[in-house]
Write a structure and sequence with these properties.
about 300 residues, six-stranded antiparallel β-sheet, three-stranded antiparallel β-sheet, 10 helices, elongated
């Protein structure tokens, strides 16, 4: 039977096991441990991020004032620790929701780098470096150089799979990335004519925002991002040609009739079919190449 704290954390999307918990909230890794029957320190929370010393001081000051004296704020080598002191479980569950929402907002406002960057040196992490490591009992992702300088333990595949995967937010991120790519494709088709190359950019945007919103990099990410990329790339291509046709024939017919009239012209229809087919092929090709690279890097990573 889950305790009150464990139940609350699970409902908030945390992976909870043996008094420890983990989640990615607004791009930042949240780790911690709790003791249900401890009044003095019922919960300890650690948030991983990179910030300069001055930024850390500003963040610590802002959080200390707002969170109150019962929560100790301590800077660490890879982020910041929050120790909840002298409070009952009821008090903790009243304060914790605000903390989990407020802390990442302050970090983002002050420019603290999120989980895409090494929390020790601030270097942007390569895809193969984004696997979690256990450093002093805290799950973090470090770049290759910092791994060599810290006593780290690889997190097992079983533990990795226990980490919550926010599919809903990931899908929203992939949708947003694909839409941005579609907009670029639309204008590229209208004014340049060579839009099919944008499908690669669209897929990269979709996968990047999928991960940014809390989705785990896996086959689901590639499938969702790939589907959105194909659909929106083709729709953007179609929309561009429809608008172009309407500009030419719009004085005498509605937008679709203008397009159908333009398709009767061999040069226009040939250009449309060529652009449509190239967008389809490059979109599918981008997915295949991305999947190949992803599988190859995954096979080389240490589980």
């Amino acid at each position: 039977m889950k305790t009150e704290i464990a139940k609350f954390l699970t409902e908030k999307g945390f992976s909870v096991k043996d008094g420890k918990f983990f989640a990615t909230i607004k791009g930042y890794h949240f780790n911690g441990s709790f003791k249900e029957n401890s009044y003095f320190t019922p919960l300890t929370l650690h948030v991983s991020f990179f910030a300069t010393r001055i930024q850390q001081q500003t963040i610590a000051s802002a959080l200390s004032v707002t969170l109150g004296k019962q929560i100790s704020v301590v800077a660490t080598d890879y982020g910041m620790k929050f120790i909840y002191n002298n409070m009952s479980v009821k008090e903790l569950l009243r304060i914790l929701p605000f903390s989990l929402d407020y802390i990442p907002d302050v970090l983002a406002k002050e420019g603290a780098l999120d989980c895409r960057y090494c929390p020790i040196c601030g270097t942007e992490l390569k895809p193969e470096e984004q696997r979690l490591l256990s450093v002093d009992g805290i799950f973090v992702a470090l770049d290759e150089h910092c791994r060599a300088n810290y006593a780290v333990t690889e997190v097992s595949a079983e533990t990795q799979s226990d980490i919550p995967n926010n599919y809903a937010k990931g899908i929203v991120g992939a949708l947003a990335g694909s839409l941005i790519g579609a907009v670029i494709t639309f204008f590229a088709t209208m004014y340049i004519g060579l839009s099919f190359i944008i499908s690669i950019v669209s897929l990269l945007l979709a996968t990047a925002l999928y991960k940014k919103m809390g989705g785990k990099p896996n086959n689901v990410m590639i499938a969702v991002s790939g589907c959105f990329t194909v659909v929106f790339q083709l729709l953007a291509c179609l929309a561009a040609y429809v608008i172009a046709a309407h500009d030419a024939f719009g004085q005498t017919s509605d937008i679709w009739q203008s397009f159908m009239a333009a398709m009767m012209i061999q040069e226009f229809s040939a250009a449309f079919y060529l652009g449509f087919i190239l967008n389809l092929l490059f979109s599918i090709g981008s997915i295949v190449v991305y999947l190949f690279i992803y599988k190859r890097k995954k096979s080389r990573s240490v589980l």
